Amino acid sequence: MAHSGFLQAAVLLLGVQLLCLGAADADQETGTVIPAESRPCVDCHAFEFMQRALQDLKKTAFNLDARTETLVLRAERRALCDCMPTNSLR
């Protein structure tokens, strides 16, 4: 019984997907075509986006590098302080 209900649900979902796909194709066919002269340059926009992403990555890398250096120095200082006896620090 449960197998029959699962099969019916699968067939129903497949039917809905086919209807939606058909409607999407019909919408695309009836749309108007925008001339290439009036469309924005996709390559230019992609290049600008990639430039901004690269700048963000450079900033992130610099911040991580600075943070790593700070943490390494802090760890070295702790290791140095742990090695020295407390009475020699006075």
TrEMBL record:
<protein>
    <recommendedName>
        <fullName>NELL2-interacting cell ontogeny regulator 1</fullName>
    </recommendedName>
</protein>
<dbReference type="GO" id="GO:0007218">
    <property type="term" value="P:neuropeptide signaling pathway"/>
</dbReference>
<dbReference type="Pfam" id="PF15161">
    <property type="entry name" value="Neuropep_like"/>
</dbReference>
<dbReference type="InterPro" id="IPR028147">
    <property type="entry name" value="NICOL"/>
</dbReference>
<keyword id="KW-0732">Signal</keyword>
<comment type="similarity">
    <text>Belongs to the NICOL family.</text>
</comment>
<dbReference type="GO" id="GO:0005576">
    <property type="term" value="C:extracellular region"/>
</dbReference>
<dbReference type="GO" id="GO:0003723">
    <property type="term" value="F:RNA binding"/>
</dbReference>
<keyword id="KW-0527">Neuropeptide</keyword>
<keyword id="KW-0694">RNA-binding</keyword>
<keyword id="KW-0964">Secreted</keyword>
<feature type="signal peptide">
    <location>
        <begin position="1"/>
        <end position="26"/>
    </location>
</feature>
